[in-house]
Design goal:
Blueprint: H1 29-41, H2 51-63, E1 73-80, H3 95-106, H4 110-118, E2 121-128, E3 139-141, H5 159-178, E4 183-189, H6 194-205, H7 209-212, H8 221-238, H9 245-252, H10 255-270, E5 274-276, H11 279-291, E6 299-301, H12 310-317, H13 333-351, H14 355-358
Parallel strand pairs: 1-2, 1-4, 2-3, 4-5, 5-6
Length: 365
């Protein structure tokens, strides 16, 4: 097991215990070139559909098809609780996490509504809520523990727990592939999870808490200051470095964040496009890209969260999100809202007539 070897090494024999070191797939350049040529021939001035053209070509390279499709989408919401909640870093009680799992199961959450409207498959994976809700329709139990440890005082997870959380993400991707999904959206839910996400971002970007911390579910100024102190104390305690993503995930992450990171790595290994959601998801994406830099080839970014640290992570990932609506809900909701843009990009690409087909004169040379 190579959990302490954070940097991928092609000379290392990859075993089932360190699956995350296996190479990721390469984008299909021929499909990209074919899609670009098709864009050139469509009945419009070149570039007139802006980023929609680039998205269609990028998805063509991801799917290996000059006419990509996004009819089958899988949304997976990972749920976990956090020991750091006892430090008063959330405006909501931890009991909300289990209550929200029941809400997901009943179809009453925002992502439930969006997934139904979009015709997307939705599953919820309990990787470690503080309370066990018991069997719930649409909820898969992969419980690791009743929440993580308090990252302010000790590592949030031990090595076995970290690997179990990442494995839960890998398993979710395999289920999505078995269901013939064409796009993966990873969501999350867990009271206080903006604290570990911010701590993880601070560690990987070498930033103090004050540079990235935000109100999360609605903290006032005093609450935000308390949250920043908790994060700074955790960063000092664990002495994390920018080149140690696994250790950072283990010490200051969360079960659902590690599951998302594992899912993103597995998507890249299996050639599955990903639409990354908001603040928590992009922290997981940052960790995944630090583990395997070429994971970034498989990530599209849905929206710019209202959390202050979002901009720094987007910049580090050289990412340009599709939407900026002041969202900060999580659950994969921002990615679901951006999905229609991706779908419209690919149907325009596939459905528009070429100049020759339409009998329309093209641009004069």
């Amino acid at each position: 097991m190579n959990i302490n070897n954070d940097v991928p090494n092609n000379n290392v024999l990859v075993t089932s215990d360190d699956w995350w070191l296996a190479p990721v797939q390469t984008l299909d350049n021929e499909a990209f070139l074919q899609a670009r040529e098709r864009q050139r021939r469509l009945t419009k001035p070149p570039g007139s559909l802006g980023r929609l053209e680039a998205l269609a070509m990028r998805l063509a390279a991801m799917q290996g098809d000059r006419r990509p499709s996004l009819e089958r989408v899988r949304v997976v919401v990972f749920v976990g609780d956090h020991g750091v909640a006892q430090e008063g870093v959330s405006a909501f009680p931890q009991s909300v996490t289990v209550e929200m799992m029941r809400n997901f199961s009943r179809g009453g959450a925002a992502i439930s509504v969006l997934a139904r409207e979009l015709g997307a498959a939705l599953e919820v994976v309990d990787v470690g809520a503080a309370g066990d809700p018991g069997p719930l329709p649409g909820v898969i139990s992969r419980r690791i523990a009743a929440g993580t440890a308090n990252l302010r005082r000790e590592p949030a997870m031990d090595e076995a727990e970290l690997l179990a959380a990442m494995d839960a993400g890998r398993e979710a991707v395999e289920r999505a592939i078995a269901g013939d999904a064409q796009l993966f959206i990873g969501g999350e839910m867990g009271i206080a999870n903006t604290t570990p996400a911010t701590a993880l971002a601070c560690a990987l970007l070498d930033q103090p808490a004050r540079a990235l911390v935000g109100p999360g579910t609605g903290l006032d100024a005093e609450g935000v200051a308390r949250k920043a102190r908790v994060i700074d104390e955790a960063l000092r305690l664990h002495a994390l470095t920018t080149d140690g993503p696994l250790r950072a995930l283990r010490c200051v992450g969360g079960f659902e964040i590690a599951a998302l990171a594992g899912a993103f790595v597995r998507c890249a290994q299996r050639g599955m496009p990903v639409l990354v959601d908001g603040f928590i998801a992009i922290a997981a994406a940052l960790a995944a890209v630090r583990l395997q830099p070429r994971v970034s080839d498989w990530l599209l970014y849905a929206h710019r969260s209202a959390e202050p640290g979002m901009g720094a992570m987007l910049q580090a990932l050289r990412a340009e999100p599709l939407l900026d609506l002041g969202l900060r809900l999580g659950e994969g909701s921002g990615a679901a809202l951006a999905l229609p843009l991706l779908r419209l990009a690919v149907v325009l690409h596939a459905g528009m007539a070429t100049f020759a087909e339409a009998g329309v004169s093209g641009k004069e040379e």
